[in-house]
Design a protein that fits this description.
Blueprint: H1 2-7, H2 21-32, E1 40-45, H3 49-57, E2 64-68
Parallel strand pairs: 1-2
């Protein structure tokens, strides 16, 4: 992220949050009310991390690019 922030053209955001039960309940409530709209463009496995990064850097995605680590 630091390399992209210093030398790239893309915006870099890193967010850390606490794992509180109330946060998960709020997200659950929003999901049940269909108030969340998540657009997943592609999913890559961990061994395809370089491909996922290249895909994102080409700006070919129309939604979130997911890296599956389990």
């Amino acid at each position: 992220m630091l390399w992209t922030k210093l030398f790239g053209e893309q915006k870099v955001t890193c967010i850390f949050s606490e794992e509180k039960q109330s946060n998960f309940e709020m997200i659950k409530d929003l999901a049940e009310k269909k108030a969340l709209k998540v657009i997943i463009d592609s999913t890559f496995t961990l061994d395809k991390t370089a491909d996922a990064h290249a895909y994102y850097e080409r700006k070919a995605n129309k939604g979130h690019v997911i890296l599956k680590i389990i």
